[in-house]
Write a structure and sequence with these properties.
Shape: globular
Strand order of the largest sheet: 2-4-5-6
Number of strands: 7
Oligomer: single chain
Number of helices: 1
Helix content: under 10%
Largest sheet: 4 strands, antiparallel
Length: about 110
């Protein structure tokens, strides 16, 4: 039985002193298809994107489309037009919700 809970995952970035690292932009790319999932996450309306993060990675907005599958996502963070971080995650969706299979959500630069 599914719950009414909305499941989502976000990435946070910090420097060596634990301070939040702001990004000018970020992308979430499906590694297999190359599809940019960023806009779908932003459009879901569950996140207020802030330059200091957290940065939406994946959520139940994809549950129907990705049901009963596992995929790799690449999070890319940019400052001044340059990619400053890239991290790969494994995520999955079942008949109810998405889940994080592998990957660290709290990243340090």
């Amino acid at each position: 039985m599914c719950t009414q809970q909305f499941v989502s995952f976000s990435v946070t970035l910090s420097d060596s002193n634990g301070n939040s690292v702001p990004l000018d932009d970020y992308r979430v790319i499906d590694q297999r298809s190359g599809e940019d999932l960023t806009q779908s996450e932003k459009a879901a309306g569950f996140f207020e994107y802030e330059p200091g993060g957290p940065y939406p990675l994946y959520g139940d907005v994809f549950q129907d489309e990705h049901q009963n599958s596992e995929r790799k996502l690449v999070f890319q963070g940019f400052n001044g037009g340059q990619e400053i971080i890239s991290h790969t995650y494994t995520v999955a969706a079942d008949c109810c919700h998405v889940r994080l299979v592998d990957g660290e959500l709290n990243l340090s630069l």
